[in-house]
Amino acid sequence: MKKLLMAAAMAAMASGASAEDVKLQLKWVTQAQFAGYYVAKDKGFYEEEGLNVTILPGGPDIAPTQVIAGGGADVVVEWMPAALAAREKGLPLVNIAQPFKSSGMMLTCLKETGIKEPKDFADKTLGVWFFGNEYPFLSWMSQLGFKTDGSPGGVTVLKQGFNVDPLLQKQAACISTMTYNEYWQVIDAGISPDDLITFKYEDQGVATLEDGLYALEDRLADPAFAETMVKFVRASMKGWKYAEENPDEAAMIVLENDQTGAQTEAHQKRMMGEVAKLTAGSNGALDPADYERTVATLLAGGSDPVISKAPEGAWTHAITDKALAN
Amino acid sequence: MSRALPVVTVLAGIVAIWYAAAVWMNATWAFDQAERAGQTVTWAEVIPQTMDQARPLLPPPHQVGAELWKGLFGQAVTSKRSLVYHAFVTFKGTMTGFGLGIVVGVLLAVAIVRFRVMDMSVMPWAIISQTIPIVALAPMIITLSSQLGLTGRDIPKAVIAAYLSFFPVLVSMVKGLRSPDQMQLDLLRTYGASDAQTFLKLRLPASMPYFFASLKVAVAASLVGTIVGELPTGAIEGLGARMLIGSQFGEPLIMWASLFAAAILAGILILVVGLIERIAGRRMGVRA
Amino acid sequence: MTALWLAITVWLAAWALNVRLAGSGIAQTRLGRILVPLIFGVTVLVLWEGLVRGLNVAPVILPAPSAIAAKIATSLPVLWQDFAQTILKGAIPGFLIGAGAAFLTAIAVDRSPFLQRGLLPIGNFVAALPIVGLAPILVMWFGFDWQSKAAVVVVMVFFPLLVNIVAGLQASDRMQRDLMATWGASYWQSLLKLRLPAAMPFVFNGLKIASTLALIGAIVAEFFGSPVYGMGFRISTEVGRLGLDMVWAEIAVAALAGSVLYGLISLIERWVTFWHPSQRH
Asked: Which ipTM was obtained for this model?
């Protein structure tokens, strides 16, 4: 533990040149999923709080947890399962705010495969994202009683890439999709919604919390850093609420910040509309009931559970209480 | 003309095969769509449909060409939508890695040929270093360099490119520096040449053809390293990032156009390196 | 900090020992040729261990070699399953198919100067392309299992090998070829007895480069979709789980597999091209 504290202290020194500089590591590439932060930056909400925020886009090989462990960021956008798993590995991540109230994850299946309800998954091939995103799926399957090793009566799991091809090429009966992204790619590809059947994790009662803001526990103990986070969360939530009310403008802001120049306006506007549905129920403060459900889902993870015991101190209202007070 | 004809013939053959493959591969989708709509279609109806799908399995050449043209000339070169802009980003990374790779490769080769202990202890590990899939190390290079306070994306990218490009230079230089045969070495010894003189007057010149031959491989390896490095370093800019975005958003045309832009970049790099090789060879009096 | 200084001391002492060994008679023996790089490798590990312990590097950043070794020892079945999927099913068949195809193409083109003039510039060009970019496309075409990985490897090794073999076939001297002609050697005799042997140094150069490309190709392709085992799968998944000890364990296996492959090719090269000056140092 002492070792870890020292590493974290080193990380703190490496990153905290000035107290008001904040580096935010995103979970994925620049897209409307992170609109709130881009809006807050673009509209000057961070500046009003006296913050100089740098937004670092993620990518397929970037684990936000590893970046924050290495001192490359002060705060990260991460899904709760991965954050709790990292916490159990000895990286003291704390949820300081939860802009996403609902889960956008679902399994999308072709109707022609004969799947009508979850028990029809038996002996089918399902596409799943890994890299820390597989946990909700594994606990769902274990609750359904399916083995995931491809044995008869179980399901065969594919590690799906970054797109929806496995479904279009019929390599998988179902694939993982997000309500705000991949699902629409399937539709765009020319498959009518009538030919699809989707299972939302939210509806199946196995939803886990998605995009939340996480910082390191020992740095939060420093009142100055905690104060910076309060300002950061306040401005970020202002950005999110602005994005919800002005989805088209938010999408254009995201588009301007996309340095690859490959994102399209239509796609980002639609994504913003869907993301707004997920953030709508949250004022930024984590709902402890959602947290408990996430932990319960993860603990039920079958033979290879994500976390072996309920974590303690993995979230705090200290930041959001102050940020939302005025 | 006589030199162009064979190339054109082979290219025409490739394009013909490509079109045939595009029809064959994209047809499945067209038939499936018709089936979902409850219609039956004939091949004659399907073939035109295979030529302009939005997400073809294999886009036919004219679709790739059009996308490439749009990317290269459709907007100002400074625009983030311009492939020229992204190719330049990739080019910068490639050159940094290439330069670094040459320096490391040549220095290591000289040390290995000169010092037995280097040869015996380092050479086997240089070989093993190449068997490590660098892509696996990429995220770790990024975290480690940010730990050291180097937050720029160019550095991890250049390290990955150099990691791939130093090896061909090293192998060829070691081979080249050892290529003088015993008779030539004996001759220099009878002249009373020192080690340094033998190195400068015999070994180094003898290694030059090997060196230049390795440069073409090294610059290509450096480009591969840069593109691979652009995937995990945040997928911000560069041709690698565009390929990834194309894959993620199911836009095969973006992927293919970036791939061809990378091919054009590779072609230019090889041409330039070949030109340097020829000029240097002529000035050093190497037989062509 | 003491761990760090201790490690540096060990490193310096071992380097001095290596200098002595390399200069002594042992260096000529087989034992010496294995011992010296081994000592060097071990000292690098000691230095690494010392750095991690001395500077208290968090295990989620860089695990110590001892932790990696412990992980390897406890996860042998998993490592073996991944190895079989990626190397035995993906890389090796792809490498053999790619090398075989390149060889046959080179021989086929060799007889037709027209095709050679047409294919060579194109082959040279394609050999320089970042073929790795094709990986997501090939995964889409050939599915998730090892077939798509083998396909990526085939495409990656084919062109570098083709170019090397064609260049090698032109490596014999004009005078040597004329000599064969004055002896009345047929095309095939000249090919088998002169031009193929003369091409071998180039061929093996190509094979060595291709062997490392094969591993990279097979592993990268798994990033774009795979079954739930395989080295690329494990690496990308464990980075996300912060299981860095497992990542490094896979890297160690990859390095070992690559070295064995490279070593095999070198052995065959030594046996085939015993006449080349570079083999006589």
From this structure: 0.72
